[in-house]
Amino acid sequence: MAKSKQTYEEIRQKRMEENKKRMEELNLTKLSQSLLSKPSPVKKGKPRTFRPAAALTPVRRSPRVADMSTVSYKELPVETLERTRRSYSSRRRGFGVYASSEARAYAIDKAEQIQSRLGADFPSFLKPMVQSHVSGCFWLGLPVYFCKSHLPLSDEMMTLEDENGDEFQTKYLARKTGLSGGWRGFSLDHELVDGDALVFHLVSPTRFKVYIARAYDSENNENKEDMEEDNEGKENIDNDKNSDSKHLDGIAKRTRASRK
């Protein structure tokens, strides 16, 4: 064991001497001493610049959207815009109210009078309005017999012309026999309500002349009649009061004469 240990020490010592000779040949010892003698330069600290926080957005790897601006999902306060208040007439205030049977009958009677004056040169039909035609009003069904006899066999754009000459484009659906797109605008613009009656006069294959009979005109007439009846009732009451006062005056005069 001693011999093996001695040989190890001898081998180690020889290697150290060989390494030292190689370092001297390469001048590595001098270089290491020169490096140790030089002081290390003092590093100047750079001022720290504050950078804005990077947006936490996913990296766009697709070249198709790489050049596009990134979408921000940050919640921002929304500026509320002032909405202009629309003025509605008394008819629109009653929108959604079901018409009475008297008002509905009045409008139909008025529409029949309008239809009778149109003549038979061009076909026409009468269409009373119900809530489904004017509330939501995306659809207006037409009489099937009229559609089969006079209207196009395929879908077509129809023109609705009112009594003032204003025109509205609507979509006629042949299979469903009714007006779809554009009917809402016509209904809202003319303030149609439940109980109104319309006369559709087909003046050309794709043009209707539309006449409107208002249901609530009858309320004005009824109000006038009620006012007239109230006035007549007041006049009768006044006449009765005058006759009663005259009768009492006559009785008082007779009693005074009998006392004398």
Q: Note poorly predicted spans.
A: 83-94
What order do the strands of the largest sheet run in, or round the barrel if closed?
1-6-7-3-4-5-2
Quote the distance from N terminus to C terminus.
181 Å
Q: What is the name of the CATH superfamily of the domain at 92-213? A: DNA-binding pseudobarrel domain
> Helicity level, as a percent range?
40-55%
Written as H for each helix and E for each strand, in order along the chain, the element string is HHHHEHEHEEEHEEH
What is the CATH architecture term of the domain at 92-213?
Beta Barrel
Gyration radius (Cα, Å) is 51 Å
In round numbers, the mean pLDDT is 76
Briefly, what is this?
This protein has helices spanning 2-25, 28-37, 90-93, 101-116, 131-134, 144-150, 183-189, 217-259, and strands at residues 124-128, 140-141, 156-161, 167-173, 178-179, 197-204, 207-213.
Written account of the structure:
- With 260 residues, the chain is of the alpha+beta class.
- The protein has a domain at 92-213: Beta Barrel (At1g16640 B3 domain), CATH 2.40.330.
- The chain has helices at 2-25, 28-37, 90-93, 101-116, 131-134, 144-150, 183-189, 217-259, and strands spanning 124-128, 140-141, 156-161, 167-173, 178-179, 197-204, 207-213.
- A seven-stranded mixed beta sheet has the order 1-6-7-3-4-5-2.
- It is rod-shaped.
- Residues 83-94 have low confidence and may be disordered.
- Its main location: nucleus.
- Residues 125-216 form the TF-B3 domain.
- One of its GO terms (cellular component) is nucleus.
